[in-house]
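Amino Acid Chain and Its Fold in Token Form
===========================================
Structure side: the spatial fold of the chain, written down as a series of whole-number tokens.
Position: the record begins directly beneath this header, with no further notes in between.
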Amino acid sequence: MIRYWKPGQDDVMILQLIESELVPLSHMSPKEIHAIRKDIPARLRRGVTLVAAGQEDRVLAFIHFLVHGELLCIDMLAVAPAVQRKQWGIRLMEHAERFAVSRGCKRAKVMVDVGNRGGLAFYRKLGYTVTRIISTSQCYEMEKVWYP
């Protein structure tokens, strides 16, 4: 089941997914990662967070995104190792994209850490293309356009 984030209830599991699935792929310094960790609760409140919940409402995966005018910005997507390759990432992306299109978005962007081959392949499969490499953060900027 995909549902909206429940602040407080889902936070521990979301933070665990960030620590286990996103932080190891990052090229940021420990100081930068520490600052981001502190900002996660506020960051989640600034956008939309959807979770894939399993038995006992346990968070299996989550997506966090923001809508800026005609642009959907995928901020974070993480799937627990036990349920990877079971379509949860695709389902969360579909929900986020439908949400964005219903609000007038014409394109979407996501940043993928250099070296994250799985993430790069995942987004390519969904129609995203690399638009540039941002050397300072060692990330690929990927974009998908629905309406040119």
The mean pLDDT is 93. Helices lie at 11-22, 30-46, 88-102, 117-125. The radius of gyration is 15 Å. The first helix runs from residue 11 to 22.
